[in-house]
Amino acid sequence: MAGFFKKIVDKLSGYPDDADFDYEGEYDYDEAVEEEYDAPVSQQAYPQQEQFRPGNIPDPMMHYTAPQRSSPQKVVPIKAGEQQLVIMQPNNIQSAQRVCDHLRAGHMVICNIENVDAKIAQRVIDFISGSTYAMDGNVKPIDARAHSFVAVPRSVSLVDKEIAPQDTVEYPEQYRMAR
Prior knowledge:
The chain has four helices and four strands. With about 180 residues, it is α+β, with helices and mostly antiparallel strands. It has a four-stranded mixed sheet with strand order 1-2-4-3, with helices on one face. The longest helix has 17 residues, at about 120-135. The model has no long low-confidence stretch (mean pLDDT about 75).
């Protein structure tokens, strides 16, 4: 039974049975190598080289010519999309998804979660920061209480400066709000 399957495989594969071939005596590689080894080397194979002398070394800067450009290269301005700053107050996962949609579009997003329940705010922050990380973006808090943060895409770099304490900022009298 095994011989039957072997014959079928040999027929279908297109390779004949190895027992029919006689490999000995077909090729004699040793004679061909000896003939090539004993062949005389012609002088024409190697071009005549100039003899090295200290006086015949050319100065590389003496004959240098700058390569000429065939046509001047054109500078094409790249139209960058307008940078947008979006301010949102995400109070559920759907609004957090909209924040991430803005990030995917290349917009910077400032989020204020001051009036959001603590558990929902934590989920929103986790969702936005995870999505921003997946897009190689960055998330930084804006205020010390972490009620506001900025999320930016990869194309925007945030420079992390020292955060000014909120209580020590002095505004001129004309800009102060009545309490």
